[in-house]
Amino acid sequence: MKTQQPPSKKLFAVADRFRSRLVGDQRLQIVVIPASLIIVVTVFFIDPSRSQAIAGWVQAIGSIVAIFIALRIGQQQSDASIASALSAQQHSERTRQRFALAIVQSANDFAVDVRKAFDAKDIGFGLLSVYDRKVVDNLVAALNALPLHDIGSPEGVSSVLSMRLQFVLLGNAIDAFIAGPWQHPELGPQLKMHEKDASFNKKMLAECVSTGKGVLRKNVLTHLQVIARDHQNVLRAIA
Predict the structure, then answer these.
(1) What's the mean pLDDT in 3-22?
(2) The model's pTM
């Protein structure tokens, strides 16, 4: 004749099976406590004379609840660690973005100062106070050193790449303006040809020189306009 297994041992076996399932099944975790409460209520309706069975039920339920609580605490700690890591990563990204924005802003501030000089009546005097080719070269180097993956959007990356090129072209355009039409590789030969032409008087030659200066000035302003547009695009990308 087989001996019937005590209820407490059966319940402990059930608890062991729950232990393995609770670890990987979050839905099962959600129903454990309500189910345990139902079992506790049921225990009160069991015949008090079966004290051994009641003790087994209580121990089994306590084991299940303890497992559930341990899992929930572990999950909360894991969630807190993940949230902390994400927060640190976001802070690092924002720091790098602020650094990138500072460089882009400095470059744009320089471009704004140059624009003010070209909008003044005496361009030469204003330009002398703000322009140095070494400053342009340093700005280009700083823009080239920016990690593009920190910018935040394809449009922002394209704008930074554009600013790198535009500042190189801006420096060349300003140097050409300072040198004047006579030294320009295309305008210079034409002016010299007109100078030797007997049909060209001094007034006509002066008008050609003035037109050449206007062309060189427009080249500078064109690059400044593109830089201003790129600057706004980067601001939108990082904001």
Answers:
(1) 56
(2) 0.63
Query: Shortest CA distance to 220 belongs to which of 182, 165, 175, 162?
Result: 175
Which range has the top average pLDDT, 74-88, 141-155, 224-238?
224-238
Whether 95 contacts 151, CB under 8 Å: no
Residue 217 in any domain: the answer is yes
Name the CA radius of gyration of the chain, rounded: 39
- The DSSP line for 54-85 is HHHHHHHHHHHHHHHHHHHHHHHHHHHHHHHH
CATH for 116: 1.20.120
Structural domain that includes position 160: 95-238
* Residue 7 domain flag: no
pLDDT band with cut points at 50, 70 and 90 for residue 57: low
Query: The tokens 């406590």 sit on which residue?
Result: 33
Does a structural domain hold residue 41? no
Q: Kindly report, residue by residue over 158-174, the tens digit of the pLDDT.
A: 999 999 999 999 999 99
Contact 180, 78 (CB under 8 A): no
Q: Where are the alpha helices (DSSP H) in the chain?
A: 7-24, 26-43, 51-119, 123-130, 133-144, 154-179, 187-196, 202-238
